[in-house]
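Bit of a strange request maybe. I'm writing a small parser for structure token strings and I need a real example to test against, not something I typed by hand. Could someone generate the tokens for this chain?
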Amino acid sequence: MNRDEATATQLERWITVANVVAPTTLLGALLFYFGYVSSRAEYAYFGVDVDTIGLSTQEYIMRSPQPLLVPLLVLPLAGIGFMLADTAIRKRMSPCSADMADQVKAAKAFKRASRGSRTSGMVALLAGIVLLFIYSAIRDWPFYGLVTPVVLASGAGLVAYSSRLHRTRFATRHTRPAAAPLSPIDRLGSAPRATNVLVYALMVASTFWASATIAQWSGLGLAQSEALHLDRLPSVILDTKERLYLRDPGIKETVLPASQGQTFHYRYRNLRLLIQGHDLMFLVPNAWSASDSTLIVPLDSSVRVQFQFQNAIP
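Reply from user aminoacidic:
Good idea to test on real output. This should exercise your parser:
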């Protein structure tokens, strides 16, 4: 093998590795992001910044299936619905025979569908742009983060679909004489490739935005579910050397009897383990209250932790 052949072989290997690694890296980054967004919303409900917990990248990725469940179900269902609708539209607009009248009728149907799709898409895009510009006025609207990207993605999708119908229409024979001039709406339909790329980029960005909003809602929903069922979390008995002066209702403080060699003097009950980080434990009261707070306990010799049994009698 000469030098040129060896270089070509090495280049092929690098290309093969890049084709495998790049999509995997992108997928991992997306899973990490959605897991992070969900976890941030979840623990913010308990007053904890998720960055203080110290979760690893793998832990964020493992938390991503829950917030991604809805998008992973909705997007394929939407795709199936689009394909069924597209098949029905094309079947309806296909000429029944080779007769010129049927050809003209089908061409007019394609034209109406293309114009209708493009007009609806432009209206939706305009509505989405308006929502973007009035964000400061309606930012407290709880559904803003979902409605706006869905409107933008729908508008971009309708515009892209109208372009597809336009290309199909002019690819069909006997649709329009070659020398016939294009109308303004048809010129708009024959958008250059760069415009189509921008339209698809807008669809992807809007879908990403909507998915991130759903991930945030998923994290908040998980937090509210945990708050309603804190009794399902591990029960903790905490011994400390100094009094903690906890003000949360329901937490019971007991002074331990003094004895020789005893270094822990206070015991706290009715605590639950919310989550454990690398070297910290995050404890919450046994029952949720608006005045509760999250207790951060270091995993060192300054405290003594016991976990109580929760199972029923075997």
